[in-house]
Design brief:
Helix content is 44%, strand content 5%. The protein is mostly helical. This is Mannosylglycerate hydrolase MGH1-like glycoside hydrolase domain-containing protein.
Length: 446
């Protein structure tokens, strides 16, 4: 039996420093140079950590994001800060043109946003922020304000994005599941004609090494997909996503939606609304997830390419994220743990933190974005999943590794899974926030 270790000295102060430096007064940027606007799932993760600094600030973080929600229910993946120069990030507001191109889909008029979405971790974040100070949350009516917006967000995903007809949410762009250049997208993206490389300027390369980032070819295809979606008025199609060349059911996105449906059921009960609809929805999605994406031979969930027809063969950390799901069949949860600790992901053996992609995969790269490096949000989610499914010792070891690596890497965006070498940018928002959350938990564990 191992005992939980306290957080490394200086971690909490360092994490607070990062979060205070990245705070704009109404939200937190992931990185002032590389990502100078508000990102959807970043803000959810950041609020989970910043609740330990100020629950009221964490509430404001989430409500600032939700204020940019479209009337069709979608929460855009970027909310643009008008004080930031237009050239600071690409694609910026001039590319997305949400207030005009998205008008028919319900884009807000008061703020510019992107038109695609990111994984729905928001209800879970709102519930955890509420729990940080329930009396203050109730006094300020936090849950009462966010509940209808969260319910609308989940309705949008369930109605407009069930493009495969099997009950699961589909993504229409590689940026939507958050794992932008995962090898899982190589085959679906190969069908997309990229825009010419001279037609856009990548601001990300002004702040990071090209060897750490997606390739120009990847970016050309990302831009093509986003421009086509924009030019179609950001419309989602019930007839199998007729307007999108990229259409995928991702297990990570759907696992986070299930976890957030459970959280939304608890939020609904707290505000006097009907919680049963969310419990039923969570059960329905869990069954659909197992039915459509579980691969017993591989011991994890796979992505389904709705255009190519069938499960994508690549092994991604997204396929482990259903460990977060309450009510997951016991034998499937046990298989996920074996896969996480086996040769393809190496947890506790060849590596201390789960990599984003198969260590033995044909496209594994320990340095390049989502093609192999370790990300802190993925490991925070898996730490919760391990605890949920009766693996406290493995969860303790993962938590200790995450905390040590966060400090040693300078709160890096991501790290080499073997060496822990910092990659991407430093002082990254969700790395600091989730390290702080894990540190508080470690210090509270006997």
């Amino acid at each position: 039996m191992t005992s939980a270790r306290p957080a490394p000295p200086g971690l909490a102060d360092g994490a607070r420093r990062v979060l205070l430096a990245n705070w704009t007064g109404s939200s937190t940027v992931p990185s002032p140079g590389l990502y100078p606007h508000q990102w959807s799932w970043d803000s959810a993760f950041i609020a989970i950590g910043s609740r330990h600094i100020s629950p009221r600030r964490a509430q404001r973080e989430l409500e600032t994001l939700l204020a940019a929600q479209w009337s069709d229910g979608r929460i855009p993946h970027i909310v643009f800060n008008p004080a930031v120069p237009p050239t600071a990030y690409f694609p910026g507001p001039g590319f997305w043109r949400s207030t005009t191109a998205g008008a028919a889909a319900g884009a807000p008029r008061h703020v510019e946003t992107s038109g695609i979405v990111q994984p729905p971790v928001h209800a879970l974040a709102c519930l955890l922020v509420h729990r940080a100070d329930p009396r203050s949350s109730a006094r300020h009516g936090f849950l009462a304000r966010v509940h209808p917006r969260l319910a609308a967000w989940h309705r949008y995903l369930g109605r407009a994005r069930d493009l495969g007809g099997g009950g699961l949410v589909s993504v229409v762009h590689p940026w939507e599941p958050g794992m932008d250049n995962s090898p899982c997208w190589d085959a679906p993206l190969a069908r997309v004609e990229p825009v010419p490389p001279g037609t856009f300027h990548r601001a990300d390369l002004d702040h990071g090494a090209a060897s750490d980032r997606p390739t120009d070819l990847d970016y050309g295809r990302y831009v093509r997909l986003a421009a086509d979606y924009r030019d179609g008025g950001y419309a989602d199609y019930r007839d199998g996503g007729a307007g999108s060349a990229f259409l995928v059911e991702d297990p990570g996105v759907n696992a986070l939606l299930i976890a957030s449906e459970h959280a939304l059921a608890e939020i609904a009960a707290l505000v006097g609304a009907d919680a049963s609809v969310h419990r039923r929805r969570a059960a329905y999605l869990t069954a659909a997830l197992v039915d459509r994406l579980w691969d017993p031979a591989a011991g994890l969930f796979r992505c389904r390419d709705l255009r190519g027809g069938g499960l994508i063969p690549e092994l991604s950390a997204a396929g482990l994220l259903p460990l977060l799901v309450p009510g997951l069949p016991r034998e499937i949860a046990a298989a996920l743990v074996r896969t996480a600790c086996g040769p393809h992901f190496g947890l506790g053996h060849t590596v201390r933190l789960v990599p984003s992609y198969d260590l033995r995969g044909r496209a594994f790269d320990p340095a390049r974005y989502w093609r192999g490096p370790t990300w802190f949000n993925v490991n925070w989610l898996l730490e919760r999943g391990l605890r949920l499914h009766g693996e406290p010792e493995r969860a303790d070891a993962l938590r200790a590794a995450a905390l040590e690596t966060a400090v040693a890497s300078g709160f890096a965006e991501y790290v080499d899974p073997y060496t822990g070498e910092a990659r991407g940018t430093r002082d990254f928002g969700w790395t600091a926030a989730l390290a702080l959350d894990l540190a508080v938990a470690a210090d509270q564990t006997p």
